[in-house]
Structures are given as structure tokens and as C-alpha cells.
Write the C-alpha cells for this entry.
Amino acid sequence: MADETRISPYNVSDCKNTTDDALQNYLNGLKFRQSHWYTDVKLALGYTAVIIAAITFALDYKYGFEATKQFTTWAVVVYFLLNGAFTYWIWQVENGLIYVGAWKGRKITISTRTDKFDPTYKLSVTYHPSSLNTIPPVSKEISAPFMQWFTADGFFVAAPFQQWLATNIDMVGDADPKNVIDKAAGVVTAQSVQPDGLKDLVNVIKTGPPPAAAPRKRG
């Protein structure tokens, strides 16, 4: 079914943000256990810097600069260190990371990105093919145009997106085998179904395309 939220299909940033949110909701719906550790660290750095700035302002307002000069000096140093750590965390540690989680003891991390003026969703994933620690993790990159799961008028259609993930990422396919399709059978996209037929999209994916007509025999 189509998401009721409408965006501009020509805005790459909006398409990416909507797709990132849909990816997290989809995996969580499959009983993946999402880790928020990276987000928690980022928030802790940001809030700590804001709290230090607020305390410094309050002390300066109440006691004056001369009385709080030494504290203010150290507070400024710590504030800039925290902001530097915050920036480093976003651009070097997270670096596009949108999902960290696990399913049945198997870990998965997913990062996404887009290039300017290129409406292509690029996904990098690392996951463990087994819960056994002796088996090394698998890393791969996949990509697809946003219009594979966005309609021409900007509505997100979940089924083609979930189908794309389950088919191309084995761990997701193991958790959601009904959305794994045979690539030779063709991929159903948001553009291949008219708006009034979106409710039948899941059935189309499950049953596959209609069989080709038998060739006529020449008399």
C-alpha cells in the first residue's frame, strides 16, 4: 500500500529521508532489535555542550564576567572540544549509518547515501550470515532508483521497497521470505501499478507476473 505522506519525487533529500525511515520501520517490524547506541552518544555530546553553554551564560549573567572569568575560560574550551567530538562522530563514526541491530543473534549495520542530483538510493550493509562467531560477516553494496518505490506524484509504496531489500540482503530475506522474489520473474515497482490498483500490489508481488500467452500454431 502507498504511504499517505506525499513528498516531491524530485527532491533527493526528501526521498532519502523518507526511505531511511521506512527501512528502520520495516526491519523493526520484522522483530529486528535496533541498537540506539550511536544516537545516544551523539545526543549526549550535543546536550552536554548545550548545558555547559547555558550554565556559563547563567553564571555570567548573575555574577558578571570578572567573577566567572576562569570558569568561563574552561567552559569555552570544553564546549569547543565537545562540538569537535560531535562533528567527528557524525561525519567519521556514523558516516551515513542509519541502522544497527540484530536478528536471532545475527548483527547488521546499514549505511545509506545519495549523490547530488542523482536520484539513486545507495546502501552499504554488513551482516552476519550466521549466529556463529566463527563465520565472517558479509559486506555488500546495493543501489536502486527512488522511483522503484515512489509513485510519479510522490507517494511512497512500501511493498516494492521491502521486496528490494529482502531480495538483495540475505539476512532480511531470511526474516521475510515472502518478499524474496526471483529476479528473472521481474520486479514490481511503484510505477508499474496505477494509483487505483496499489491495494493489489502485494498480491502481484506474491503471484508474479501473468504467464505469457502460448504461441499460435501455424496451419
